[in-house]
Amino acid sequence: MKNPVLNLLFPICCIVSLYLASASHARADDWGCQVILCLSNPGGPTEFAECRPPVEKLWRHLARGHSFPTCSGVGFHSSKPGYEPYYCDDGYKLVGRYEPRGQEATCISTSLTEVSRTLCSFDSDRDGSSGGSVVFPRWERVNGHSRCMAYSITRPNIRSQPHYVDVTIDGSGTHRVWY
């Protein structure tokens, strides 16, 4: 059985290779098209040395607040630049919550885990948290026994490149580009 993604990506890679081979002859107004071709590379936008200069120029361009470059004749559109400084490990989701110091981001596990029975006592915090390591502790019936279960929390990771733009390229899908 053929993989439809590979069937789609092979022609794109061939076009990218041919275009990049002639990139030294490209005009200045082709920069947007170079960027689109590089972004459509399944190996990443800077996998090929020829893609690094136009993509790095894109990152600088977007970081200064400029819009995404255009490329006539190619079906694509891009989102406005976004900012997402934090991310969570697998099995956790990023949420914001309000603390006395202001809004903070935290990672909360997506599944319940068994925790110390003391966390399910009646004197735990009324907001659903207990001691800063778990949230929403409660008694659950597991295999016929009562267990204290909760969602664990952890600090989020900080992105080295927190700005992004989503680029949708016809025939290649949507790519989130971090810069």
Automatic annotation (TrEMBL):
Record protein name field: Uncharacterized protein
Lineage: Bacteria, Pseudomonadati, Pseudomonadota, Alphaproteobacteria, Hyphomicrobiales
